Amino acid sequence: MTDPNEQQGPRIGKDEWVARHGDNRARRAGIAGTIEERLRGVPWWAWLALFTGAVCLLPLGVDSGYARRIAFDTVIYMLLALGLNVVVGWGGLLDLGYVAFFGVGAYTYAFLSSDKFDLHLPAILTIPLACAVGGAIGLLVGLPSRRLVGDYLAIVTLFFFQIFLTVTNNGENLFGTDVTGGPNGIINVDPLGLFGRELPVSTDGVFNVSYLYVALAAFVVVYVALRFADQSRTGRAWRSLREDPLAAELMGMPVNRLKLIAFAFGAAIAGLAGALFAGLNTAVFAADFDVPTLIIIYAMLILGGAGSLGGVILGALVVNVSLELLRTPDHATLIFYVLLIVALALKMRPWAWLAGVLGGTLALGFVVHAIASSAWPRGVHGDPTVGGNLGRALDHWVLHPSSPRVIGNMAFVALVFVVLALTLMHGWRQKLALVPTLYLTAFVWDNRLVVEPSITRLILIGVILIVLMNARPQGLLGAARVEIV
Fold first, then answer.
1. What is the band of 28 on the pLDDT scale with cuts at 50, 70, 90?
2. 477 is a domain residue
3. Most buried one in 106, 279, 332, 409, CB count within 10 A?
4. In degrees rounded to 5, what are phi and psi of residue 193?
5. Most confident stretch, 10-24, 160-174, 453-467
6. Digit-coded pLDDT (tens) for 181-196
């Protein structure tokens, strides 16, 4: 029998979604959920102060100029991710030409503070001008695009990006004038200077930490400004625009104006990052603003959580630091195997199957290595690509042929087909087939991928994104969307 007090249908005059909001919110259970709720209760300014203090203290504990330069680059990426978050995370506009605004800021600084046109304006004036020029061009790009959405907007912004690349790469003879220097770029750009004092890029060959502090100060200003913008009427209107442009327009919001403001804000922040980038490198080249840079910035946004200011900062930290760690085979191999095990642990249930798959893969490797040592000695006479204890362990488990390039290429092609076949299987057959697939993956990694760091870095970042999107689709700090079904 049914409870007469239980509501069987929708209640007239009451918003059912609002009434069930507490039930609809996705919460983690147990200790993880408690920790997450406590961390969310910490005020944003406390997190900002903690992060700023940690970065300021970094040079005291790290003497390496390389590590300090990586910290500077990471702050620049944070600025870029914050700007892209305005356009994509808040405005919901798929801007594929964002890196062009980064280049516009760098070239603006180079035009106004270099020997190119014999203009040597102080950085305190050039940097705001670079922001203004970036914002103005963003506004111009947004004007013809304000009525476009989705794929159409992406095509238009990608076309603008291609125009930028074409002009900068062929600008050594633009209307008979050398404007951008073409592939050779613009050199002898003035370094940053404050209050009439020039900041040298390096001191005794060591990166000048003052550049890190300048970039950090710019980051703090931008972050605080965006935090207030997020809590303003414009910020709420941006998020409404992202969720449903038609509904936002029906509610009386100036949709076209909001798009233009988002484009201009994002482009201005990218222009600021470009000016700081040009001041540090004292040179600007068209190759610095390419498609891989765009992919990396989008990876930071997606990984951290689009729409979350703290999320994009965390995404920039994870992605940029990971890319630097992946430059060496030892670090890259360690990260690869850790990611592989973590992915299996997240997706495979029950735990007995996980132990069986891992144990079966290890056993298969030792068996294959023992057979190859007797039947095919050339298959184990190659040089391992990883040193240390990990390299010695892998040398007794993974085959290292004396001619790994050709065999590695064929194994890579075979791995693609094996993975495709694996997706068509289900149940115990898929789990059993996973054992040789994992060993083939390890073979391809050790003999082919790890020796190509420029390609492997992007592949591993893609793997990190795939694993995270399966475990947490909204990103590390992004909020899960509640949909009415």
1. low
2. no
3. 106
4. -145, 145
5. 160-174
6. 999 999 999 999 877 7
Looking at residue 419, its pLDDT comes to 87
Asked whether residue 295 falls in the same domain as residue 430, the answer is no
Chain centroid to Cα 28, Å, comes to 25
Cβ-in-10-Å burial (0-12, 13-18, 19+) of 375 comes to: exposed
- Closest to 188 in 3D by CA, of 175, 201, 178: 201
Position 24 scores a pLDDT of 46
Q: Using CA atoms, how far apart are residues 322 and 386, in angstroms rounded to an integer?
A: 18
The amino acid occupying position 237 is A
266 and 395 housed in the same domain:
no
Q: How far apart are CA 310 and CA 73, in angstroms?
A: 18
Closest listed residue to residue 227, CA positions, set 125, 85, 336: 85
Angle (nearest 5°) at CA 467 between 462 and 470: 125
- Both tokens of 413, joined, read 């092609």
190: left (phi over 0), alpha (psi -120 to 50) or beta: beta
**306 residue type, one letter:** A
The one-letter amino acid code at 77 reads Y
The more confidently predicted of residues 350 and 75 is 75
318-357: string of b/e by CB count within 10 Å (b at 16+)? bbbebbbbbeebeebbebbeebbeebbeeebeeeeebebb
Asked if the structure places residue 114 within a domain, the reply is yes
Share of the chain above pLDDT 90, in %: 41
Alpha-carbon gap, residue 469 to 450, rounded angstroms: 24
Domain boundary among 268, 297, 325: 325
Q: Containing domain of residue 378, as a range?
A: 331-471
220-240 pLDDT, tens per residue? 999 999 999 999 999 899 888
Output the CA–CA distances (angstroms, integers) from residue 37 to 23, 235, 326, in the order listed: 16, 24, 33
Do 209 and 247 fall within a single domain? yes
- What pTM was estimated for this model as a whole? 0.83
Long-range own/partner contacts, residues 399-408 (CB < 8 A, 24 or more apart): 399/368, 399/369, 399/372, 399/443, 399/447, 400/446, 400/447, 401/447, 402/378, 403/378, 404/447, 404/448, 404/451, 405/448, 407/447, 408/443, 408/444, 408/447, 408/448
Q: What is the mean pLDDT of the chain?
A: 85
Per-residue tokens: 11: 């209640």
Same-domain status, 202 and 186 = yes
The vertex-19 CA angle with 14 and 20, nearest 5°, equals: 140
- For 344, the token pair is 């299996």
**Helix (H, G, I), strand (E, B), or coil: what is residue 197?**
strand
Share of the chain above pLDDT 70, in %: 91
